[in-house]
Amino acid sequence: MNYYNTHSVSPLIIAHNKDQTREINGDEFNQQIQKVVKILQGFSGKGIAYKLDNTPAWLVIDAATAVSNKVAVPIAHFFSEQQTQYVLVQCGANLFISDTLNHLLEEPVASITVFELYTLYIYEIVVAKPNSYFPETQKVTFTSGSTGQPKGVCLSAKSQMQVAQSLCDKINIKKPVHLCLLPLAVLLENIAGVYAPLKSGGTVHLIPLNELGFVGTALKQPAQLIAAIDKVKPNTLILVPELLACLVTFAEQGWQPPSSLQFIAVGGALVSEMLIVKARSLNLPVYQGYGLSEAASVVSLNTPTNDNRQSAGSVLPHIQTKIENGQLFIKGDLFLGYLNHQPHNKKQWYGTGDLVEQHQNTLFIKGRLKNLIITSMGRNISAEWPESLLLSQSGILQAVVFGEGRPFLSAIIYADTKLSNPVLAQYINAINKQLPDYARIQKWHRLAAPLSVQQGLLTTNNRPKRDAISKQYHDVFEQFYRLGEVINE
């Protein structure tokens, strides 16, 4: 896969680390790839899992797995240790590569230093039963796991490159300068933020995530993100809605986005037209897109030459679409299948689970078929996951979790009157420790009386009517996200 355009003598990658900046051209990059390839070929087995920060080392491992004819299994940095262990078991990886020592594994069998800067630890994993990957599998990307168990989506090199090429053609910026703000293990940044810019002869800037102001999935120091954009002066960025809202807030407070910006793609969750209009008025050239891992990240995208602010853009040329009962179905060079499941037949339509309207090849996203929360950071969470943990605590009698399009999850809770607020808070804190940070309950509202069928807030079999509850407690939720306070009736 020559997605790195490694014959280029101009910088492919510019790495920023604290006060250091290092330019890496194609020859240097190839040398490091070959060094890693020699090590990978010394181990038997097919799967190579890696959990690394946003550094050139990530790109080296990514490329080396392809050159070695191995299966790449990138793991997002925000996955909890439990989720990481689950991925390692499910993917049957023989090697795990990390830029930090892992106390849950045996001692590393080897280490390697990439570009004389990044030390990588290589762990060999004893696999009880070798995994049988689908033919042509080059990468297994794991979703954030709506129920706590991430799902492996198997992709070929061809499907990834097809999306990257379609994006190059559609965006049509020659030699773009791109700054990666999302984790490289997120498929959208991997393909649209690395492969596509480099296929267009561009340069990719990498900054460690903590230096961008991130702690886990949360942006704790947004000023660092703004400073990075000012320093790099990129042409292109990829954002989730929460990061877009951050940039808009800074711009409203007087920040001047660099004039170099030509194209900011925003995806991962639905973005309101109002936010897009406001962003553009503040010199942020934002364009909404839509995609899913099963389609190798991007399905549709708005561009300056083909733009509808109310939509998620026009469908990429290599994908076919149809709508049945409001649900979007797609067909084309999609995923090979889910890991450890039956293969996906490319001749068959794939149901996305999204409710969509389509007009003249342009998609208008209306919502989800399933009861899935998609936060403004683009994380997918089944509400029943944290709810079930809450309800497992003695004294918590009802719990309904919300957070669609919001930066974090909140909950409506009814508990036994004998349970004091401090003890309830302890219960919630204990539950949060079992969850990755994106699935934690950060704010909660305690009810004085239980939700009931008579109020129209429960079905006859006592399932929560989420829309009705959301409307009933609209003011409470607005106060949560405006003030961030815990409220009790």
From TrEMBL:
Residues 20-325 form the AMP-dependent synthetase/ligase domain. PROSITE patterns: AMP_BINDING. Transmembrane segments: none annotated. GO terms for biological process: fatty acid metabolic process. InterPro entries: AMP-binding_CS, AMP-dep_synth/lig_dom, ANL_N_sf. Coiled coil: none annotated. It comes from the Bacteria. One of its GO terms (molecular function) is medium-chain fatty acid-CoA ligase activity. Keywords: Ligase. Belongs to the ATP-dependent AMP-binding enzyme family. This is AMP-dependent synthetase/ligase domain-containing protein. It comes from Pseudoalteromonas nigrifaciens.
